[in-house]
Structures are given as structure tokens and as C-alpha cells.
């Protein structure tokens, strides 16, 4: 007779599976198991990683110098990429032909299909340095055997004949990095100040919370505008960049400090904190070695959701003309071209191209933050 106790039931198998993946798993394993179920967040992670890679290798990806002008192709429209020419595979764009409209006194561009310009990958270019120190003479893509007068404007050109695609690629470096640097500053301030407030309590907590309430009561945009307008015009671009980063992160730490304080209030009397204190660990050691790591996944989710706010803040300041200024290239600076209604009517790609980059980055970061926030509580609906 078969011993029924030796036959594992379906329930035992489920318990064993969950025991392997849930009960015994560490904090980061639980975090990943929950996060990978969020398909939109995973796709957003790929998009964000791709955008930061583009920003990192901007010199290699952008086919032209973002500040190179060409008076012949002012407000040139985007040139569509075609793959087939005369029945053969040949990536190419049609040469632009410019005519002057005598009635409107404007330049008009048409595609000359009789003059295809071959487009290739890893084409030879003028010498440049990748990331500031790697000498290169190759671009990701460009015209093959380019001649003077040939054009390649994937996303069109601006009023000075500068390639919009190259400028958007270079602008990603500033706009995306300003979000990371600003959030890093907010992270340090928020965790440190919020941790001290929640862990020690008493009059320290009262003072810190009143300061936070005072800062949060100040209207954000007018404060940013006032501080940004105080930046001297003659400052070098690098110094202006760091000051704008400081401005956009000035109030970003307050919400994180509130959340960290709440976590500390709920954890400071737990058994593991008491055991660490009895073991002789200092108060700051308990904070940074036990309390902060216990909800690090939640901090990561909060920080990810804060990056879009930083990007939009820089974009708004630069669009209003009181943030970053040329020759610095950011998405907000590029949108300054869209302030002129006539320019937008004549060249709508000046608005749509940087705006699309901002929308894709912000939406992807928000979706990623939502996925991380859900994964921060792995036992929910587990």
C-alpha cells in the first residue's frame, strides 16, 4: 500500500515554490521578483538606459557638431530615410533643393529624388574626442563620401542651419544629468535630515519639520525664477550648470525627508534597533547601517520619481530664458526656439523634436518609478 504521506500534494509544491522565491529570498531578491512582473516598468528601464547611453556617447551618435551652422539650409525640413533605391538595398536620403518663394519671400525646400545621398554606419568623420579624452574619427552614421553642399537633417535644421538631431542628442547629456545630480543632492539632504528628525525626535524633530514646512510653503516657480535671475550673466557655462542644478534641487529634498522621517518613526523602536544599541553601536551607526538599508528600495523608488521633476524644472527655467543659456545645449534651451510663433509655423520640428524627447524621458521615468514603488513592497498581493 502506498504511503500517502510521501506523495507531495499540489499545495506542498506551491508552498515549496513560494518558500524558494518568497520566504527565503533576501530583500533585493524580493524586490526584483516583484519588479520584473511590471512589464511597462521593464520597458521603461530599457528606454531610460538607452537614453543615458545616447547622452554618454553623444559625440559618437550625433552626425554633426551641434554648433555647426549652414546658411544654405536654414529651417531645412527633416529628410526622410529610404532603404531601397532602384530595386536595391541602399539607405539614403534625397538631396534638398532650395527655391525662393517670391510671394512669401521665404525659402522652400523640396526633395530631389534624382540625387540620392547614401547613408552608412560607422562612417569616417573629422577627428573628435569621445567623452572628452578618447580620440575618434568615426561616427555612428552619416553620409557616405559626402561632398560640399550635401545635407543630412534627420530632424530638420534651425534658424542657423544647425542639425536638430545632433543638438537633441547633445541636449540629452545636460537635461538627463541635471536630473541625476539634482536628485543625488536631494537624496543626501533628505535621508540625512529626515533620518535625524525621525530618529531623535523631540525638539530636533520640531525644528526640522517647521523648517521643511516653511520651505514647502514658498511658491516653487517664483523662487526658482528669482534665484536663477540672480545668476551673473558672465559666469562660465560649467558654473552656471551647477548653480541651476543646486536651484532645482533646493526644495526637492523636503518631500523625501518627510518620508524618511515617517519610516524612522515606525522603525526606531524595533527589536533590531534595540539590539544594535545594546551592542554598543552609535546612533549614527544605527541610522546608516540598519535603518536606511531596511527601506533602501523605497528610497530608490522615490528618487526615480523625483528625476522627472528635476528635468521639467530645468526645462521650464531654460524655456523662460532664466535657466541655462547658449552655448550650453539642453532640451529647455532648444525649446527657446519654439517661443517664436512664426518660427514654429514655419518649422514645427523646432517644437516637436525636443518636446518629444522630454515627454518620452519623463513618462519612462514615471513608469519606472511606479514599478519600483510597487516592488518596494514585495509582500503586497504576493
Characterization of this structure:
α3 packs across α5 (164-200) and α5 crosses α8 (237-248). The chain has helices at 10-23, 27-35, 39-56, 58-61, 164-200, 202-217, 220-229, 237-248, 252-267, 271-278, 283-294, 296-319, 331-335, 341-346, 349-375; strands spanning 82-85, 88-101, 106-130, 134-143. The two termini are 38 Å apart. Mean pLDDT is 82; it is low at 4-19. The protein has 15 helices and 4 strands. It is α+β, with helices and mostly antiparallel strands and 382 residues long. The protein has a 4-stranded antiparallel β-sheet with strand order 1-2-3-4. β2 and β3 (106-130) form a beta hairpin. 57% of the residues lie in helices and 14% in strands.
Shape: elongated
| Uncertain runs | 4-19
Task: Output the structural class.
Answer: alpha+beta
How many helices? The count is 15
Query: Main beta sheet, described?
Result: 4 strands, antiparallel
- How many beta-strand segments? 4
- Record the strand order, biggest sheet: 1-2-3-4
Element order, helices and strands?
Answer: HHHHEEEEHHHHHHHHHHH
> What Rg is obtained from the alpha carbons, in whole angstroms?
27 Å
CA(first)-CA(last) distance: 38 Å
In quaternary terms, these chains amount to single chain
Strand composition percent: 5-15%
Helix content: 55-70%
Kindly report the average pLDDT value. 82
Amino acid at each position: 500500500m502506498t504511503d500517502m504521506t510521501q506523495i507531495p500534494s499540489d499545495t506542498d509544491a506551491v508552498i515549496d515554490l513560494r518558500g524558494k522565491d518568497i520566504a527565503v529570498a533576501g530583500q533585493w531578491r524580493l524586490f526584483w521578483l516583484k519588479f520584473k512582473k511590471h512589464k511597462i516598468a521593464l520597458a521603461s528601464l530599457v528606454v531610460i538606459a538607452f537614453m543615458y547611453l545616447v547622452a554618454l556617447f553623444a559625440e559618437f551618435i550625433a552626425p554633426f557638431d551641434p554648433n555647426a551652422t549652414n546658411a544654405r539650409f536654414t529651417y531645412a525640413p527633416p529628410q526622410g530615410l529610404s532603404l531601397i533605391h532602384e530595386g536595391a538595398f541602399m539607405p539614403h536620403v534625397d538631396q534638398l533643393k532650395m527655391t525662393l518663394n517670391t510671394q512669401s519671400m521665404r525659402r522652400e525646400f523640396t526633395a530631389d529624388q534624382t540625387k540620392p545621398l547614401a547613408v552608412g554606419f560607422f562612417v569616417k568623420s573629422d577627428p573628435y574626442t569621445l567623452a572628452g579624452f578618447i580620440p575618434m574619427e568615426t561616427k555612428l552614421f552619416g553620409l557616405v563620401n559626402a561632398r560640399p553642399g550635401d545635407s543630412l537633417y534627420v530632424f530638420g535644421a534651425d534658424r542657423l542651419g544647425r542639425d536638430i538631431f545632433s543638438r537633441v542628442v547633445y541636449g540629452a547629456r545636460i537635461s538627463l544629468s541635471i536630473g541625476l545630480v539634482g536628485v543625488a543632492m536631494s537624496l543626501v539632504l533628505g535621508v540625512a535630515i529626515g533620518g535625524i528628525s525621525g530618529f531623535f525626535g523631540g525638539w530636533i524633530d520640531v525644528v526640522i519639520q517647521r523648517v521643511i514646512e516653511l520651505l514647502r510653503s514658498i511658491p516653487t516657480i517664483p523662487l526658482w525664477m528669482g534665484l536663477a535671475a540672480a545668476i551673473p550673466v558672465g559666469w562660465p557655462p560649467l558654473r552656471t550648470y551647477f548653480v541651476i542644478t543646486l536651484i532645482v534641487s533646493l526644495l526637492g529634498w523636503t518631500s523625501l525627508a518627510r518620508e524618511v522621517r515617517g519610516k524612522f518613526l515606525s522603525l526606531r523602536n524595533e527589536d533590531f534597533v534595540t539590539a544594535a544599541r545594546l551592542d554598543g553601536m552609535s546612533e549614527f551607526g544605527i541610522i546608516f547601517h540598519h535603518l536606511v538599508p531596511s527601506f533602501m528600495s523605497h528610497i530608490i523608488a522615490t528618487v526615480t520619481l523625483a528625476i522627472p521633476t528635476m528635468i521639467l524644472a530645468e526645462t521650464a527655467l531654460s524655456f523662460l530664458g532664466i535657466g541655462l543659456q547658449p552655448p550650453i545645449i539642453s532640451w529647455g534651451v532648444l525649446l527657446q526656439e519654439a517661443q517664436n510663433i512664426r518660427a514654429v509655423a514655419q518649422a514645427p520640428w523646432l517644437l516637436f523634436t525636443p518636446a518629444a524627447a522630454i515627454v518620452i524621458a519623463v513618462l519612462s521615468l514615471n513608469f519606472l518609478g511606479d514599478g519600483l514603488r510597487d516592488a518596494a513592497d514585495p509582500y503586497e498581493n504576493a
